[in-house]
Design a protein that fits this description.
Elements: E1 4-8, H1 12-24, E2 28-32, H2 35-44, E3 49-53, H3 54-65, E4 81-85
Parallel strand pairs: 1-2, 1-3, 3-4
């Protein structure tokens, strides 16, 4: 059974490049363009691993703290290995 990976990255070129590379290594890959989309996918589909762009996640956390994510349903916890990464610019 091939591992299912969610890759969250706001830069489209990097999202496509890394997604293609992971697929070439045999992973099933779903990509999200930001933390909000990543959260929705992560709570609706089973993933073995989530790889996050730290900046995309921080923007999601900031909007959640500001109350912009009021449509979220409580109690949808995730039990998965999560790795966050960011590139220096």
């Amino acid at each position: 059974m091939r591992p299912n990976v969610l890759f969250v990255e706001d830069e489209e070129a990097l999202r496509m490049t890394v997604g293609d590379r992971l697929r070439s290594e045999g992973y099933i890959v779903d990509c999200a363009a930001d933390g909000d989309e990543g959260f929705e996918k992560a709570t609706q589909l089973p993933f073995d691993l989530i790889i996050l762009d730290l900046c995309a996640v921080l923007r999601y956390v900031e909007s959640a703290q500001a109350g912009d994510c009021g449509s979220r349903k409580p109690g949808r916890g995730l039990h998965i290995s999560i790795r966050a990464a960011s590139t220096s610019r």
